[in-house]
Specification:
alpha/beta; Phosphorylase Kinase, domain 1; Rossmann fold; 4 domains; seven-stranded mixed sheet; six-stranded mixed β-barrel; 24 helices; globular; binds ligand MGD; binds iron/sulfur cluster; binds molybdenum atom
């Protein structure tokens, strides 16, 4: 079968441990899988699809009994899930049954944010939107409408917006998540880490996790592979101010002072170089600027790093030697959500450089070269070209931003610089929880002539919309083909298992309908979505019928390591791994990372850290009754000694108040030895205040509300948000 070329990959990227209840699942062979969502059907049907509770897109099989959704399990044919879903995926059926769901299109009938609506027909909603979009276009140009879209479900809306003529299409996955990592790796190796990460965790002999809290961060394949690596005796080194689930599996746990990881990374590299422990042949063959690199890191001894990080110099040496002992199967995990301190691209670059010293890029147990099926895009007419260009990064202020900045579009909406943005189309991203400083988001929204939100529940962002469009949940709809970049090439189909309970519709249908109202119908030449699939798959020599039946089609395994014949080519300016970066030097940045101490907080305050819980995704699952049954509110982790000082015990309620005087909803205390005394920690996504979210309303507290400050990464515009500090307000009563 067709497999895509490396060249196209470059082009495209240029653009359980006992931790989890991931029960192994026995399912029948693909032969008894059927595919149609027919509510009257009797008996048991198994419909292959892929999960949408997070962006990992695990292959799954939905079980429908007498027309009713029963359960969902992993598809054993799928290389991502390998037959097992994570607890969130298993609880995904709760999304279909959620009584808080949006049921019909809504138009605002009072001030923005009041959450008062009139139910309208789809036709009325589209008329309203099209009229506004065309007015905005006539007055300010097509670029004045921006699309915020997260996840594969937004693909057809992206296509519509490109056809409309706007280049302003963005997702929080860059400036609020993995952007700095991909920039740091791209500057070093010429390629992104991308998603799913090209990390060969299962073959690693030494795995270093810096923050990445696998096991709470439940990205399925990574967690499964982490368990495998542990079983095979890999040494695990975890660096985290909090004793995470991953830390409990580690041989070395380094409770680092928050924000000082770059100091540790520099000291590790210093040891490896000074003790002559690097992969010399690899570095000589593929490296550029190694001598300058060596002289630059000479000052960063473990003794220098000790007062910065709080990590004993001998532990720094010991762990560096262990990494070197296992090279090249030593994987310093690049992390994923890395927008922490504003120096994140340089910290990520240091991670890339440490991997480069150990020769793990392109090697088994390090970073592999992903492969993909060659499924050509649909042959649409060409998009109109924008004369204005993108709005998010005027004058390339952030020279290494290679994707569009959400917060850049927000900024332009607030200031009109470089030009005005008057319409936001928001698909599946809760901008109130996802972007730092919610006040700025709300102010920007108040400048708009049109805010459309496509969601499945009445989220906070939907509460601010002029028009809310209710989408069918993933178990009720087709979405675009998932042509994944992974260890092995495959293509997966999301298809409906059941019908939507009310007047909800899939986004491809919305995009096609709206295209008609905007005079862009010729951009949607296919009559049905099936026709679209058939055409794309036929062009790849694949059968839609077979894909419908199996949910997944595989390509032939390709070489994925240098040793297997992948050419060691690096798309950097020098064509080599850049230990020293001329591009950075020319743009006025450090060509080799250097360390700056992060600023501290007011006396008596604690740094606010946040992360994931195994049974929830961001702010999107708290109203899913199956998942909220397992975790209904978040807690604030407070160091046990600190709690004692405040006379607090686990179960008491407090409020957190940040440096700008913003106070949180009440939140339960977890007094624990498992966190440093200089920080507190909470799970992201709780503390909902949208009225329509009846079940999760005001349960737990929102980290997002407290993240009023952020530091922008000067290389690429990412928003570092671990820069907020809170005090603990105890007057809330003991509970
Ligand atoms: N269950 C679940 N899993 C998920 C998701 C989800 O919503 N739910 N979301 C997915 C997505 S998109 C992402 S991006 C990932 C995010 O997950 P990760 O990429 O693993 O990272 P973070 O959420 O940034 O990391 C939180 C961890 O970093 C630690 N930490 C905080 N500050 C510092 C510091 O200064 N130094 C160090 N070394 N550690 C620090 C925290 O204590 C915490 O353990 O999770 C993915 N997996
Ligand atoms: N404070 C803070 N901010 C963060 C993070 C953090 O940890 N703390 N994490 C950052 C990271 S790593 C990421 S990746 C981003 C994630 O940011 P987002 O992707 O915005 O995540 P959510 O908050 O879950 O918002 C998803 C929205 O999509 C809706 N939705 C769910 N399913 C569907 C569907 O099928 N169709 C439609 N149309 N809508 C649907 C949900 O109801 C919800 O309103 O946030 C970033 N921002
Ligand atoms: S990791 Fe879990 S929630 Fe994410 S797609 Fe896979 S099963 Fe679904
Ligand atoms: Mo993320």
């Amino acid at each position: 079968m067709n497999t895509i070329s490396r060249r196209r990959f470059l082009k495209i990227t240029g653009a359980t441990i006992s931790i989890a209840a991931t029960g192994t699942v026995a399912v029948g062979s693909a032969d008894d899988l059927v595919t149609k969502a027919s509510p009257d059907a009797k008996g048991l049907r198994k419909i292959p699809t892929y999960c949408d509770i997070c962006f990992w897109k695990c292959g799954a099989i939905a079980y429908v009994n007498d027309g009713k959704l029963w359960k969902i399990e992993g598809n054993p044919e799928d290389p991502l899930s390998r037959g097992r879903l994570c607890p969130r995926g298993t609880g995904g059926v709760g999304a279909h049954f959620d009584p808080d769901r949006l049921r019909a299109p809504l138009i605002r009938k009072n001030d923005r944010g009041k959450e008062e609506w009139v139910e309208v027909t789809w036709d009325e909603a589209f008329d309203y939107i099209a009229k506004k979009m065309l007015e905005i276009k006539a007055r300010y140009g097509p670029e004045a409408t921006a699309l915020f879209s997260h996840g594969i479900g937004g693909n057809f809306l992206k296509h519509l917006m490109k056809a409309f003529g706007t280049p302003n299409i963005t997702a929080p996955s860059f400036a609020q998540c993995r952007g700095p990592r991909d920039v740091g790796f791209r500057l070093t190796f010429g390629e992104d880490v991308s998603s799913p990460e090209r990390t060969d965790i299962k073959n690693a002999r030494c795995l270093v996790l810096i923050g990445s809290h696998l096991g709470e961060n439940m990205h399925n394949t990574q967690v499964q592979e982490f368990a495998e690596a542990i079983e095979q005796g890999a040494s695990i080194i975890v660096v985290d101010p909090r004793y995470s689930v991953a830390a409990s599996k580690a041989k070395w746990y380094l409770p680092i002072k928050p924000g000082t990881d770059l100091a540790l990374l520099l000291a590790w590299m210093n040891v490896i170089v000074t003790e002559n422990l690097c992969d010399r042949e690899y570095v000589q063959k593929y490296g550029f600027g190694f001598d300058q690199f060596v002289s630059s890191i000479g000052q960063y001894t473990p003794e220098w790093a000790y007062p910065e990080t709080g990590i004993d110099p001998e532990i720094i040496r010991e762990t560096a030697r262990e990494m070197a002992r296992q090279k090249p199967a030593t994987l310093i995990h690049p992390g994923r959500h890395v927008t922490w301190y504003g120096d994140d691209a340089q910290r990520s670059r240091a991670i890339a450089l440490l991997n480069a010293l150990l020769g793990s890029w392109g090697r088994k147990g390090g970073f592999y070269y992903p492969a993909s099926m060659d499924v050509p895009p649909y042959p649409y007419p060409e998009y109109p070209k924008s004369s204005k260009g993108k709005v998010d990064n005027p004058n390339q202020k952030y020279p290494f931003a290679h994707e569009t900045l959400t917060t850049g579009i927000r900024e332009a909406t607030l200031t009109g610089n470089p030009y005005l943005v008057k319409g936001w189309f928001v698909y599946a991203t809760n901008l109130i929880h996802a972007l730092p400083n919610e006040e700025e988001t709300i102010k920007a929204i108040q400048n708009l002539d049109l805010l459309v939100v496509v969601d499945v529940i009445p989220s906070e962002i939907a509460g601010w919309a002029d028009v809310v469009l209710p989408e069918s949940v993933y178990l009720e709809r087709f979405d675009d083909l998932n042509v994944e970049w992974f260890r092995e090439p495959f293509v997966a189909l999301r298809q409906p298992a059941v019908e939507s309970p009310n007047d909800q519709k899939p986004s491809w249908w919305m995009a096609k309908q709206l295209s008609g109202k905007l005079g862009l119908g010729h951009y949607f030449p296919w009559k049905t979505i099936e026709e679209y699939f058939e055409q794309r798959l036929a062009a790849a020599g694949l059968s839609f019928e077979e894909l419908k039946k199996k949910g997944i089609l595989h390509g032939d395994r390709q070489p994925i390591y240098f040793d297997e014949g992948v050419p060691a080519e690096f798309s950097t300016p020098s064509g080599k791994i850049e230990f020293y970066s001329l591009q950075l030097a020319q743009a006025g940045f450090d060509p080799v990372p250097t360390y700056n101490r992060p600023s501290g907080g007011p006396p008596g305050s604690f740094r606010l850290l946040y992360g994931r819980a195994p049974v929830h995704s961001f702010s999107r699952t708290q109203s899913n009754r199956i998942l909220s049954d397992m975790m209904d509110e978040n807690e604030v982790w407070i160091n046990a000694d600190v709690a004692l000082r405040y006379e607090l015990k686990s179960g008491d309620y407090v409020r957190l108040k940040n440096q700008d005087g913003v106070a949180s909803n009440r939140i339960k205390v977890k007094a624990t030895e498992r966190i440093r005394p200089d920080c507190v920690y909470m799970v992201h996504g709780f503390g909902h205040n949208a009225k329509g979210l009846k079940h999760p309303y005001m349960k737990g507290a929102s980290d997002a509300q407290l993240l009023t400050r952020y530091v922008i990464d000067p290389l690429m515009g990412g928003t570092g948000i671990n820069m907020n500090f809170v005090t603990i307000e105890t007057e809330v009563l003991h509970g």
